[in-house]
Amino acid sequence: MISYLVLASFLLPNIQGPPAAPALGFRNGEGQDLYAARKPIFAQVIGVPNGRNAYEEYVRAAELTDNEFLFYARPFEDWIRANRTGKMPILPKGLKPESSLLDIQREKLKVGAPIIALLRTATSKPCFRPGETIVDTLFPEYGAFKGVVKLTAECAAAEFANGRPDEAVRILRDSLVMAHKISDGILIASLVGTAMKSIVLAAVKGNQLLISETGWRDIETTALALIAEPPTELRAILHDADSIKRSMRELLLNQKKFSEAIFPDKEAAKKFQRMDSDQKRQLYAEFEKKVDGSYRQIYDVLLGPESGWTKPIPEQEPTILPDNPSPQQLMTWMATEVVPVLGQIGSVAARSKTQIRLLALTAHIHRFRFHHGRLPNTLREAVGDAELDPLSMLPFIYERKSEFEFRLASKGTKELGEIELKYQRPTPTNEDKVVPPN
Questions:
Q1: Average pLDDT over residues 274-294
Q2: DSSP code of 208?
C-alpha cells in the first residue's frame, strides 16, 4: 500500500529535505551541530528579496522571534503565575527575580521594536508568498507568524500600560493587516491567518476602555476596508487547487522519480513506465478534472451570500486503493487524498468575516460613546441598518452591561454558535452528542 506521507512529500509544493529541523545538539558524522547550522527561514522562503513584497518583512519579523529573551521569558512568566513557587527558572536578561508580568511585557516591547517597525513598513505593500523558492521544511514561517502576533499583542499591552493607547492601536492594526495579508495564499495560510486574527481581536476586546476615539476611528477604517474585500479563502482555494495540479504535472514529467516514489512495487512501477506521453496527459487530465470538481463546490458557496457559507458540502466517498494499483486507480485515489477537507472552509470564512464586522461595529459604538457621553440604547441608534447580520440574517445581539460596557455578538449558525470578538466554540448539546447503542 502506498504511504500517503510519502506521497504528500512529493505533491506539496516547495518541499525538499526532512520535515523539521533536527533537535538541538544533534550532530552529523563530522561533529557539526545541525540545529545551529540550519538555514534561516528568510533564506529558505524568500531567497532573493526585491523590497516590494510585504511577505519579506513578515518573514524577517518571524525570524526575530527566535530570540533568547523570549525563549527564557515564557517559563519565567509561568513561574510568576504560579505565585513564584518551586525553583526559579533561568532569569531572562534585563529582569529581576521580583519583576512583574508588566515588567516582562515592557522588556518584550524593547525586543519587539524592530518587529513592529517591519510590520508597519509592510502594511502599505502588496503581499504574496514566493511560489518558486525551494524550502527545507513544510512552510517553516507559518508557526513563527503566530509567534509574531502573540508578541505584538503583548507589546500593545505594554503601550496601553505606558499611557500610549494610539501607539498600541497602531501595533494591533498592523498585526491585523499582517494576518489578513498572509491569508491570501494556499488554504493552510488562510487558516493560519484566521488564528492570527483571533489573537489580535482578543487583544482589542481586552483593552476596549483604554482605546481613544482616534484609535477607534483607525480600527473602524481598517475593519471596513477588510470587510469590503472578497474572503481570502476564495483566492486560497484557487491557489491550493493550482498548486496541487502544478505539482502533479511536474511530478508526472519526472517518470523515474514518480514511479519509484509512488509505486514501491517494481511490477506496479513498470505499468506506469510503459505509458506513452498521450496516456500520461490523459491521466493528468482526469486528475485535474476531479481536483477542480472538489474545489469548485466550496468556491461556488463562497461566491454566494454569507448566510449560505456554512451549509454542509457533500463529502466524496473515500477511494479504496488496492495493492499494486494501476495508474488510473492511483490517479483516482490521489485526486481525493491530496484535496484537503474542504467542508469546514466555509465556516472558517464565515466566522472570520463576522468577527471583522463585529470589530467595525464595536468601533462605531465606542465612537458614539465618545460623541454622546453614553452608550447607545439600541444598536440601531448607533449603526442604523448595519445592525442586520449577513450571516444569521438576524440583528446582531447588543446588550448594555454597565455605563460603558456592552456585549455584542452574532447569533451565528448552528455549526458555529454565537460569534463574538473573542470566539469560543459552542458547547455540544445533548442533541449533538452521539449516544452509543445498548
A1: 84
A2: G
DSSP of 118-130, one letter per residue?
HHHHHTTS-----
Residues 294, 342 contacting (CB under 8 angstroms)? yes
Which one-letter DSSP state was computed for residue 385? Answer: G
Q: Which of 78, 117, 112, 80 is nearest to 96 (CA)?
A: 80
Pairing of strands 406-413, 397-400: antiparallel
CB of 371 closer than 8 Å to CB of 361:
no
Name the more confident of 149 and 276: 149
Q: Per-residue confidence at 39, pLDDT binned at 50, 70, 90?
A: low
Stated length of the chain: 438
pLDDT tens digits, one per residue of 6-26:
333 333 333 333 333 333 333
Indicate the SS3 state at residue 116. Answer: helix
Residues 6+ apart with CB under 8 A from 117: none
pLDDT band at 2 (very low <50, low <70, confident <90, very high): very low
CA separation for the pair 288, 246 (Å, rounded) = 10
pTM: 0.81
CB 109 within 8 A of CB 159: yes
Side-chain-side CA neighbours of residue 130 (13 Å): 24
CA–CA gap between residue 111 and residue 371 (Å, rounded) = 37
User: Which CA distances in Å does 99 have to 59, 91, 111, 347, 414?
Assistant: 31, 10, 17, 43, 46
Largest CA distance in the chain: 80
Asked if 140 and 41 count as a contact pair (C-beta separation under 8 A), the reply is yes
How far lies 175's CA from each of 167, 231, 425, in Å?
Answer: 12, 18, 23
Each residue of 228-281: pLDDT tens digit?
A: 999 988 888 888 888 888 877 777 766 555 555 555 556 666 777 777 778 878
Q: How far is CA 375 from the centre of its chain?
A: 34
User: d(Cα 438, Cα 31) in Å, to the nearest integer?
Assistant: 61
Q: Does an H or E element contain 417, and which?
A: strand 417-419
- Cβ contact 416:426 at 8 Å: yes
In single-letter form, the type of residue at position 278 comes to: D
Q: What is the pLDDT of residues 162-199, one digit of tens each?
A: 999 999 999 999 999 999 999 887 888 888 999 999 99
